[in-house]
Amino acid sequence: MAGLDNVKLKALLADVASGGLQLPDFQRDWKWQDDRVRAIIATVTLDYPMGVVMTLETGGASPFRSSALTGARFPEGTEPSLLLLDGQQRLTSLFQALFQGEPVKTRDQRGNPVERWYYIDIKRAVGSPADRDEAIVSVPEDKILRTNFARDVIHDLTSTEGECAAGLFPLHIVFDTPAVNAWRRVYEKADDRHFDLWSRFEEQVLEPVRSFQVPMIKLAASTSMDAVCAVFERVNTGGLPLDVFELLTATYAGDRAYREREGTYYQLPQVWQGIKKGLAESYPVLGRVDVGIDDGLSSSDFLQAVALVRTWLRKQGGLVSGVSCKRRDLLELPLADFEKLAPLLTDAFAWVGAFLEKQSIVRVTDLPYRTQLVPLAAVRVILGEEADSLGAEDMITQWYWCGVLGEMYGGSTETRFTRDVEQLVAWIRREGVAPETVTDAYFFSERLDTLTTRNSAAYKGIYALLIKQGAVDWHYTNAPLKPALLDEYGVDIRHVFPRAWVRKRRGNSDGYPANSIVNKTPLSLRAAQSLTGPPASWLDSLAMAADMRREWFDDVVATHLIDPYLLRENDYETFYTARAKQLLDMVYAAMGKRTILRDVTDEKADR
């Protein structure tokens, strides 16, 4: 699978220049700062080990779209024989500083972009090796070294004579023997003492650089994509985790059949951007493109859904043993299969957006689990219009709310994805029992006390269910809240009894927490602005503002599963107990488990 070679640095940099050694397109940009470039040059001039580099043999047919190391220029379409997996920062720094003959575009210690030439101070270089770092000199693009806040010129290095007078050798010519010899002649002619100094410099610095060898591990061209990915991530522990989408972007762009057919390379990021933009414009719950291309539904979610459908179809054909969407399945997803399935999944996620709207979930911030949408979209593709039948829709809705309220998608999801796809399809087709996400989902009454923030899927779920079951706003009282009006009205989860009032009356009383979802309900900003002080102080003023009789407004309050009488009495404890029971009934109904844990509920109500 792999072999170890020692390659001369000069040959390696020549391969960079010619395009024989390139980067796979998933590699991120070169980003070393000036001080690190100086350090790696010092390492090479001392003939100290600079570490192993790792490459992947291609046989002239790269499995990825490849790109040049920063600074390298060669004819477009040049196919690499090797791809650099580890060592980009080191080789790019050395290539730019020692080989390309142009100033290096790097950054200073403050991160500001600068252009630098690199020189070596001959006198310092032939001294103690401990001084070698100081012997490497970084020079501005104009080759003028200044001091006193750039007011005074120390050295003008714009000519060979100036370089020789300063005793600074230009490292960008180190591998150009004729240029080095020409420079040496000017240097020795300037001062007789330079003959001996140059001799020592050539022996102690130039020869070690010319003969410097780089240990290189070569992975065979037959190495699997999964192994390449694993190796890359292990050797790049200091960087960001390698994204599957980036890998597929590079592999799809390198797809030879597509290039020959279309005359260009496949641009996965542009394809995904088009898909996501269309979905988000129709269903904002799937993301806001202005926030980021992967806000809400991500590229990874989409790829996982594609992999689930692909492995489902392959299982039906006897090609694989199970449905799966593991990293390996994504890395092995052929471009041809992605092109075939992506439109189907795009339509399926649009269907998911409409399904969520029916559940009164229309904003990204209100979405309980983004991950639960992945198997849902896959099931939609597998079932097709069969998913639109009344019985199927009821089953899917029950499965969805069991997943949300039972908080079944809070941990590792890949295994649940595969189980849910197979089990939900079988259940809907009357070929199997209810999925484990339905049968194993529970909601204990005590959970209501701890649902206090949007970090919980169940918290968001109860909020959505209150809207779905017909809650009417306390300012806009003409009709129940509609998903399309939530943003317009500024609807959010608002406290009924003010927290400060509850805490002042009860302290931090156990069993009736002021910040629980039990003491919250969906209301518009206009309604919330009136909720100052205990409910008895604002109920009638809200009714008057709505031009409603008291008993009519009480009916509006009741649409939130709240007893208005308890509000008028400012009876927080009884309100909390009664509403908790109502919310539990709503939760159990959504989960299709009306009688589950009824004894626990009744015990809570009797407290």
Describe this structure in words.
- 40% of the residues are buried.
- The protein has 29 helices and 14 strands.
- The chain is α+β, with helices and mostly antiparallel strands and 607 residues long.
- The longest helix has 24 residues, at 335-358.
- It has a six-stranded mixed beta sheet. Strands 6, 7, 8 and 11 form a four-stranded antiparallel beta sheet that branches. Strands 9-10 form a two-stranded antiparallel sheet.
Offer a quick outline of the entry.
The chain is α+β, with helices and mostly antiparallel strands. The chain contains 29 helices and 14 strands.
> By helix and strand content, what is the structural category?
alpha+beta
The level of helicity is 40-55%
Distance between the termini: 69 Å
The count of DSSP E runs of length 2 or more, i.e. the number of strands, is: 14
Percent in strands: 5-15%
Based on CA inertia axes, which overall geometry fits?
elongated
Major sheet description:
6 strands, mixed
User: pLDDT average, as an integer?
Assistant: 89
DSSP helical segment count: 29
Strand order of the largest sheet: 1-12-3-5-2-4
Rg calculated over all Cα atoms: 34 Å
Low-pLDDT runs = 595-607
